[in-house]
C-alpha cells in the first residue's frame, strides 16, 4: 500500500512529493526480529497513520482525525486491519494506495472533502441539478429518484454513480477511486459553487491552491523533480519498554517560591504513578551533577520509597544543564548499554548559556527528553531539547493557585503506549487557604475507570490539614486512612481494586493558625479490559503564536475513537507572569470549531498580555442525560456509489449512535507554548471570527430566513459591532468585492447593526420578492465588524432555490441521460387517490359553473348589484 501510494502521490503532486522513508512501529506483542530497532520517541499516539481494530459502530471505513482550520495538519489517519487485509473492501472505497493519498491530503495539507457528505446534490446557477464534486467534467448518472418537497432536490433515497470511462484527471479529494483521477483540483478545474467542505472551510479555494501554501511546497511550487524511483525506505521499530531518568535542578534559585518542596511533591506523584516493571533513575545538577539513584526497577512499595528517599533536601550553587543530561545518559545506559528510546524528564528554573553545547551528544544518544520550565527565568532554549528529541515540553508557574508542577510531571508520565497503564487524571486543583478555611469539591468516578484510584493532598505548613473523602455510599475516609509523609508534606489515599461509581466528595480544612497552600490531585486507571476509558487530549494550534493571528485551544474528548459530545469543557491558560485566562471551549460548529458534535471542543485565544511561556489546562465535566458518546467518524474517503452484485443499491447514510456517558470528571494539562508580542503592537488587532455556519431557508415564497452563530469583537470573544449582508444571483458576483448586493436594508427584517454576544444564534428574514426577477439560485454571504471597523473574512456561502423555481420542474439532467423526478406515492393507496382526486375535481368544477351562472343571472336582473 505504501509503495504504490508513494508512486501515486508523486503523480498527483505533479512530481513534487513522494514517501522517502516510512517508520513502522511494531507492537510489542509481536515477536521481535533482528532487523527491528528500538523506537526513539515514536509512539502509537503520535503516529501519522494508525492501524487499529475496528469499532463495531464505526465500521472499517478509512478516515482522518482532522480538527484544524484549512491548511492545518490533522492528528492521524485511521485504517483497520480489515481494510488492510480484505481485498473485497477495495470495491467499496477504491484501491488502498488511492485511499491513502486522499487521506494524506486531509492529514498533511489540511484539505477537505470535495464530495457531498450530508447532501449529495445542488442546483447550479444555470438551473441544472448537479452532483456535489470538484470537477464538473466528471460524468455521472442517477437512478429514478423522488423529490424532497422541502428542498426541491432528490431525497436521501436517491442513488447515483459515476461513469466508468472519464476524461477528467481530477480530483483526488473527491473521486480518487476512479482510474482516471491522478491529480488534485486546481483553480482551473475547481468548482466554486459546490456546497462541500472544501469550499466551506477554505473559502472556495481549490485543494491545489491550499497545498501550494504548505511548508512542503511553498518554496518550490513551480519545480517538479524527476526521480528514478519513488520506492520508500522502510524502517521497523520495536515497541520496547524504555527506562526513565529524572534530571532535576538543585541550584540556589530552587530555594525561591517553595520550589524545592513543590518539586519533591511532584516527583512523589510521578513515582507513585509508575507501573510495576518500570526502571527509573534520578540525577540532580547545579554546577555539579550527581547521581541520586541508579536505575531502580519498580516492584513494590519499598522500591518506590527507595527512590523517594534519594531526593535532594537542599539547593545551592549555579546551573549547568548539560552536565545533568550527560550524567543521565550514563544512568539510562545501565539497562542494556543502549540509550535509544530511553526517556529523560528534565526540570529546571535556571539559565544556562552553554545548553547548546550538548545538542550533538543528545542527537547521537537518540534519547527522548521531556522538559519542564519552572518559573519565568527558565532558559529560553530549553524547549529545543524537546524539539530535537521528539519529547514533550511543559511550563510550571509559581502561582499559588496553580498545581502546574505536579500536573507537568503526571502529564509527562502519561505518554504511554498501553491505555490500561495510563493514569487518568480526574481532578487537579490548588488554592491558598486562610486559617479555618475549607477546600471543598466533587469528583466523579465513572464506569470506564476506578482501579487504583488515588487521592493525593499536599500542603506547605508544618502540620497537615484535616482531610475528609466521602464515597458514593456515604463512607468517609479521614487523615488516619492516608499515608502521610511529613518530610514531603503529602498525604495519599490509595484505593486498590474497583471503586464505587459516582460522586466522591472531598473537604480539606486548614486547621493551622496561618494560611496554607493546599492542592489535591485525583487519578485513576482503566478497570475493565473491554471498556476503554474516556480520555482528554489538549493542545494549542502551535508551539508559538504567529502575530497578528489568534491562537486556538483544542480539547478532544473521546472514548478511544468515539467522540464524547455535550460535555462542559473549561480551559485555563496561564502565562509566566501570573495572569490566568479562562475560556469555555465549544463543540458547536462555529468560530474555530469546524463540525458540531464531533467531540472536538475549541476556542480562539486572543487575550495576549505579555511575551513569554504559557501553559494550558483543561477541566471536563460530563453529566448524565447531557453528555453522550457518539459513533461519528472524522473526514474520510467517499463510499463508492454503485450497485451490489445482486443488483441491490447500498445506502450507507445513517445517523450516529448515541449512548450516555453518565457523570464523569477529567483534568488534563497540555504542552507549553510561547507568546511573542512585537514592541509597541496595537492592542486591538483581532477582527471578529469568520462565520462558518451561515444557513439559508426559504420559509415561504420570497421570504428567506438566515441563521448563524454570532462572532465576537475579538475572534469569538466579546460582541461584534455590526454585520454586512450581501446577496447575489451568481457566485462570481458574490466573490467580487466590487459587486453590490441586490438586496437593500429595507428588505431585511432583523437588526444587522446590533449583534448578539459571541456564541448566540442570530436570525434575520430577507425579502427577495422585490428582486427584478427570481433566479434559479440566490447566494448569501455575511461579514462582521468590530468597534474599530476591523472586518472578518467572508462567511461560508449560503444559498436558496426560490420556491417559485424549486417547486416547479428544474432541469434535472446528468451528462449521460435525463432522469425523471417522481413524487412519493403509496402504491397500495394509489387507486383510491385517483378516484378521490377525480371526484373532488368534478365537485370544484361544478361549484365554479354554478357560481358563474348565478353571477350572470344576477347581473342581468340587477345591473347595479355587485355579487
UniProtKB/TrEMBL annotation:
The keyword Membrane is annotated on this UniProt entry: yes
Segments traversing the membrane: 834-858
Gene Ontology cellular component terms for the protein in this record: plasma membrane
Organism per entry: Eptatretus burgeri
Gene3D superfamilies attached to this UniProt entry: von Willebrand factor, type A domain
Gene Ontology terms for molecular function: intracellularly calcium-gated chloride channel activity
Residues of the signal peptide: none
The VWFA domain, residue ranges: 243-413
Record-given protein name: Chloride channel accessory 1
InterPro entries assigned to the protein according to its UniProt record, in alphabetical order: CLCA_N, CLCR, VWF_A, vWFA_dom_sf
Taxon lineage: Eukaryota, Metazoa, Chordata, Craniata, Vertebrata
Pfam family membership, one: VWA
UniProt keyword annotations, A-Z: Membrane, Transmembrane, Transmembrane helix
Amino acid at each position: 500500500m505504501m509503495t504504490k501510494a508513494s508512486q501515486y502521490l508523486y503523480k498527483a503532486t505533479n512530481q513534487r512529493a513522494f514517501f522517502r522513508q516510512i517508520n513502522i512501529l511494531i507492537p510489542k506483542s509481536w515477536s521481535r526480529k533482528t532487523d527491528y530497532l528500538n523506537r526513539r520517541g515514536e509512539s502509537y499516539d503520535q503516529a501519522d497513520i494508525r492501524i487499529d481494530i475496528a469499532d463495531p459502530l464505526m465500521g472499517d471505513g478509512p478516515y482522518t482525525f482532522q480538527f484544524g482550520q484549512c491548511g492545518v495538519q490533522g492528528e492521524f489517519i485511521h485504517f483497520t486491519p480489515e481494510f488492510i487485509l480484505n481485498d473485497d473492501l477495495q470495491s467499496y472505497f477504491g484501491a488502498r494506495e488511492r485511499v491513502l493519498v486522499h487521506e494524506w491530503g486531509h492529514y498533511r495539507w489540511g484539505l477537505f472533502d470535495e464530495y457531498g457528505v450530508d447532501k449529495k446534490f445542488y442546483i447550479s446557477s444555470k438551473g441544472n441539478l448537479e452532483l456535489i464534486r470538484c470537477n464538473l467534467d466528471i460524468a455521472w448518472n442517477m437512478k429514478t429518484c423522488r423529490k424532497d418537497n422541502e428542498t426541491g432536490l432528490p431525497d436521501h433515497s436517491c442513488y447515483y454513480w459515476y461513469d466508468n470511462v472519464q476524461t477528467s484527471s481530477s480530483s483526488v479529494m473527491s473521486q480518487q477511486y476512479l482510474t482516471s483521477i491522478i491529480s488534485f483540483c486546481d483553480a482551473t478545474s475547481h468548482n466554486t459553487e459546490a456546497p462541500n467542505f472544501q469550499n466551506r472551510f477554505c473559502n472556495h479555494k481549490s485543494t491545489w491552491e491550499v497545498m501550494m501554501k504548505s511548508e512542503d511546497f511553498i518554496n518550490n511550487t513551480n519545480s517538479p523533480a524527476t526521480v528514478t524511483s519513488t520506492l520508500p525506505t522502510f524502517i521497523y521499530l520495536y515497541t520496547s519498554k524504555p527506562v526513565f531518568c529524572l534530571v532535576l535542578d538543585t541550584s540556589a534559585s530552587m530555594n525561591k517560591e517553595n520550589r524545592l518542596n513543590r518539586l519533591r511533591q511532584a516527583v512523589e506523584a510521578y513515582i507513585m504513578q509508575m507501573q510495576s516493571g518500570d526502571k527509573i533513575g534520578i540525577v540532580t545538577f547545579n554546577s555539579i551533577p550527581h547521581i541520586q539513584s541508579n536505575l531502580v526497577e519498580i516492584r513494590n512499595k519499598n522500591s518506590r520509597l527507595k527512590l523517594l528517599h534519594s531526593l535532594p533536601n537542599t539547593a545551592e550553587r549555579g546551573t549547568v544543564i548539560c552536565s545533568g543530561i550527560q550524567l543521565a545518559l550514563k544512568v539510562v545506559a545501565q539497562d542494556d548499554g543502549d540509550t535509544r528510546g530511553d526517556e529523560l524528564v528534565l526540570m529546571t528554573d535556571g539559565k544556562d548559556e552553554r545548553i547548546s553545547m550538548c545538542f550533538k551528544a543528545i542527537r547521537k544518544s537518540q534519547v527522548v527528553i521531556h522538559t519542564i520550565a519552572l518559573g519565568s527565568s527558565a532558559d529560553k532554549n530549553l524547549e529545543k531539547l524537546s524539539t530535537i528529541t521528539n519529547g514533550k515540553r511543559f511550563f510550571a508557574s509559581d502561582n499559588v493557585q496553580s498545581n502546574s508542577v505536579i500536573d507537568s510531571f503526571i502529564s509527562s508520565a502519561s505518554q504511554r503506549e498501553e491505555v490500561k497503564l495510563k493514569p487518568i487524571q480526574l481532578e487537579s486543583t490548588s488554592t491558598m487557604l486562610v486559617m479555618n478555611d475549607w477546600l471543598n469539591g466533587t469528583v466523579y468516578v465513572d464506569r470506564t475507570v476506578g482501579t487504583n484510584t488515588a487521592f493525593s493532598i499536599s500542603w506547605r505548613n508544618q502540620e497537615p490539614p484535616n482531610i475528609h473523602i466521602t464515597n458514593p455510599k456515604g463512607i468517609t475516609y479521614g487523615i488516619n486512612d492516608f499515608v502521610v509523609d511529613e518530610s514531603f508534606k503529602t498525604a495519599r489515599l490509595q484505593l486498590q481494586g474497583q471503586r464505587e461509581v459516582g460522586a466522591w466528595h472531598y473537604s480539606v480544612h486548614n486547621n493551622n493558625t496561618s494560611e496554607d497552600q493546599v492542592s489535591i490531585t485525583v487519578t485513576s486507571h482503566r478497570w475493565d479490559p473491554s471498556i476503554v476509558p474516556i480520555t482528554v487530549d489538549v493542545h494549542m494550534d502551535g508551539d508559538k503564536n504567529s502575530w497578528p493571528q489568534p491562537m486556538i485551544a483544542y480539547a478532544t474528548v473521546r472514548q478511544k475513537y468515539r467522540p464524547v459530545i455535550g460535555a462542559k469543557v473549561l480551559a485555563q491558560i496561564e502565562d509566566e507572569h501570573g495572569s490566568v485566562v479562562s475560556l469555555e471551549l465549544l463543540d458547536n460548529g462555529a468560530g474555530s470549531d469546524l463540525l458540531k458534535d464531533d467531540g472536538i471542543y475549541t476556542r480562539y485565544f486572543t487575550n495576549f498580555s505579555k511575551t513569554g511561556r504559557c501553559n494550558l489546562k483543561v477541566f471536563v465535566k460530563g453529566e448524565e442525560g447531557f453528555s453522550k458518546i457518539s459513533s461519528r467518524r472524522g473526514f474520510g474517503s467517499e463510499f463508492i456509489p454503485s450497485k451490489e452484485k445482486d443488483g441491490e443499491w447500498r445506502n450507507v447514510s445513517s445517523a450516529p449512535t448515541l449512548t450516555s456517558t453518565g457523570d464523569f470528571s477529567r483534568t488534563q494539562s497540555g504542552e507549553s507554548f510561547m507568546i511573542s508580542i512585537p514592541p509597541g503592537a496595537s492592542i486591538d488587532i483581532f477582527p471578529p471570527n469568520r462565520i462558518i455556519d451561515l444557513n439559508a431557508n426559504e420559509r415561504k415564497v420570497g421570504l428567506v430566513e438566515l441563521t448563524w452563530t454570532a462572532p465576537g469583537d475579538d475572534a469569538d470573544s466579546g460582541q461584534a459591532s455590526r454585520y454586512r449582508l450581501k446577496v447575489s444571483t451568481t457566485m462570481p458576483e458574490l466573490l467580487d468585492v466590487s459587486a453590490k448586493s441586490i438586496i437593500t436594508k429595507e428588505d431585511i427584517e432583523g437588526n444587522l447593526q446590533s449583534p448578539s454576544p459571541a456564541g448566540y444564534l442570530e436570525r434575520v428574514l430577507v425579502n427577495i420578492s422585490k428582486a427584478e426577477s427570481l433566479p434559479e439560485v440566490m447566494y448569501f454571504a455575511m461579514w462582521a465588524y468590530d468597534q474599530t471597523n476591523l472586518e472578518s473574512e467572508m462567511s461560508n456561502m449560503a444559498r436558496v432555490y426560490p420556491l417559485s423555481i424549486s417547486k416547479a420542474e428544474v432541469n434535472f439532467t446528468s451528462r449521460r441521460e435525463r432522469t425523471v423526478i417522481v413524487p412519493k406515492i403509496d402504491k397500495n393507496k394509489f387507486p383510491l387517490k385517483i378516484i378521490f382526486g377525480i371526484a373532488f375535481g368534478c365537485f370544484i368544477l361544478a361549484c365554479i359553473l354554478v357560481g358563474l351562472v348565478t353571477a350572470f343571472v344576477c347581473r342581468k336582473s340587477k345591473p347595479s348589484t355587485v355579487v
